[in-house]
Design goal:
3-stranded antiparallel β-sheet; 14 helices; elongated
């Protein structure tokens, strides 16, 4: 992405939400003095410099996945997967450490946590959760969300989500996140008591703002277009990878057929029997290796899928900015309308057609007392509107500053992660090709000894 310089004087920007409260005494003891006084409103600068401080104090892992049966909200029996989250403080210099804490969470509870973070931190590119159901899979891989392989990959993805949040300089300080890791009972009630659902913007309202905002910020428009392109490119790459995996699986299984034919052939040959048997063994070993290869490939595919879902998180920040811009424009429009009404009442002239103007012509002019009373009410509304417009402008500038700082942080993270993943994938492909060459070299030696 092209580097874009933020201009705090342009467009609007709302202040971050008030924190629910800093970490409690237990968290402060685990996180150390670095967390003191920090809150969700910190972004950029000092907060960025302390990135990963929480992970240096506490280890987080999703160590197990367990299939369970229970009752849902409709009192119907259901089968679900629960994940064991373990947290452990890193050993201190004096050799003492806090005992390991563990609890079980369902995928829906991870969703609840992320939905809360999206509402209370609208200026942050909130890390995505792993896919709920398998997408972009090659046909030999099960798309069942209860399949053991899929559950294992999702377990890794959920652990990565927690590590992403814990390494974020702002999200890691949230009390609800801490309680998610440590409070097993009544955690859902604690989240719902924050009333975050009432603060969530409706999709219809966001869509309305997208189409009706008159002066969108070009920087956020470019980010929105970039997120669309990122999602499109990664989706195409994952689809191509799934087709290639299908073909690769077929090629490797053909080698298994070679192995079976050579083994059966060796049984009827005396002089060539040993050579054919050895060649068949090499082919069988090569064919059986495809399962491990494609399993490793799924790991890299999941890394790409994370940034596929990050694209939506980017768009969420842009949508929030559009909503704030639209609210600002509506407030400015309403203020201008009231000022015009006040001027018309003061001068006795009507510049534009209005229902009030028609009423005046039909029923006569207002008395001076009535006009003065209306002017006084309008002046009070104008003063209130000016204060509201000023507040929205300040909030807007703060939002843009914080959002842009987090987008820059995200870009650095994305470039680093994707570069590492793609290089590792290329190295894996080179290693796979070398093994294929070695198999045919060994088979050639077996044939030459016949």
């Amino acid at each position: 992405m092209e580097q874009l310089s933020p201009d705090p004087e342009r467009q609007l920007q709302p202040a971050p939400q008030e924190p629910l409260g800093g970490p409690d005494a237990v968290l402060e003891a685990a996180a150390g003095e670095e967390a003191e006084g920090a809150g969700p409103q910190d972004s950029g600068g000092d907060a960025m410099a302390e990135n990963n401080f929480w992970l240096k104090k506490i280890e987080i892992s999703v160590s197990e996945a367990e299939k369970r049966t229970g009752r849902n909200a409709m009192n119907m029996q259901e089968t679900y997967t629960a994940y064991l989250i373990e947290t452990r403080s890193v050993e201190h210099a004096d050799g003492q450490s806090v005992l390991t804490d563990s609890l079980w969470r369902r995928y829906s509870e991870f969703e609840l946590l992320r939905n809360y973070l999206l509402v209370y931190y609208p200026h942050i590119v909130v890390p995505p959760l792993p896919e709920k159901r398998a997408e972009f899979v090659w046909h030999k891989l099960s798309a069942d969300n209860m399949d053991p392989d899929f559950v294992e990959r999702r377990r890794i993805g959920l652990e990565n989500f927690l590590l992403r949040v814990a390494s974020h300089p702002i999200l890691c300080r949230d009390k609800i996140f801490y309680l998610f890791l440590t409070q097993e009972g009544n955690w859902k009630e604690t989240v719902n008591e924050t009333g975050f659902q009432l603060k969530a913007d409706s999709r219809l309202k966001a869509l309305n703002a997208t189409f009706r905002v008159k002066n969108p910020d070009k920087r956020f428009t470019e980010i929105k277009h970039y997120s669309d392109e990122l999602q499109s490119v990664i989706s195409h790459l994952l689809r191509v990878r799934a087709r290639v995996a299908d073909r690769l699986y077929g090629v490797y299984k053909v080698h298994g057929n070679y192995g079976r034919v050579f083994s059966e052939w060796s049984a009827i040959e005396k002089e060539m029997g040993d050579g054919l048997q050895s060649a068949g063994h090499h082919m069988d070993v090569y064919a059986s290796s495809i399962d491990d290869i494609l399993e490793d490939e799924e790991h890299y595919a999941d890394q790409l899928k994370e940034y596929l879902f990050y694209a939506e998180a980017l768009r969420a920040v842009c949508r929030k900015h559009e909503l704030m811009q639209y609210d600002l424009e509506m407030a400015a429009q309403d203020l201008a309308s009231k000022k015009q009404q006040c001027e018309e009442l003061a001068t006795g002239t009507v510049r534009t057609f209005s229902l009030k103007g028609m009423t005046t012509k039909l029923f006569g002019q207002e008395t001076p007392e009535q006009r003065e009373a209306r002017i006084k009410v309008l002046e009070e509304q104008i003063n209130e509107g000016e204060q509201q417009l000023k507040s929205k402008n300040l909030e807007g500038r703060e939002f843009v500053k914080n959002a842009w700082a987090d987008i820059e942080r995200f870009k650095d993270q994305k470039n680093r992660d994707l570069k590492e993943a793609l290089i590792s994938y290329a190295v894996m492909q080179i290693s796979m090709c070398k093994k294929g060459i070695q198999v045919w070299t060994n088979a050639k030696e077996c044939f030459s000894k016949m």
